[in-house]
Specification:
Structural class: mainly beta
Helix content: under 10%
CATH topology: Lipocalin
Strand order of the largest sheet: 1-2-3-4-5-6-7-8
CATH superfamily: Avidin-like
Shape: globular
Mean pLDDT: 96
CATH architecture: Beta Barrel
CATH class: Mainly Beta
Oligomer: single chain
Largest sheet: 8 strands, antiparallel, barrel
Amino acid sequence: MKINLDNRFFTTLTNSGNGEVSAETIFHYHQTDDLVFADYAGGEIVKGHLLGKVIDDERLEFVYHHLNKAGEMMTGRCTSYPEWGEDGKMRLKEHWQWTCRDHSSGESVIVEK
């Protein structure tokens, strides 16, 4: 199935302990051709953005940055693999890594609202 994230909203289902997004974080995605971008906020995130692209209609490659409630600017990169539920809603399984602080990595799953 072709990946289309345009005007879709997601929230976090699971995240590694070193991540900052949570169930309170809402992502609003937009897409034009293979260009994908989103705004996100909520929970510990004051405001964030991500920018990426669709690769071979099977995965997404992103860079992201956000300001957290502690006043820190956080940056990272992420590879997301989409799956579709029987209800037609999308789930993104993500492998991410900070490009700041300790450069640790983690995994998360976000689900379409």
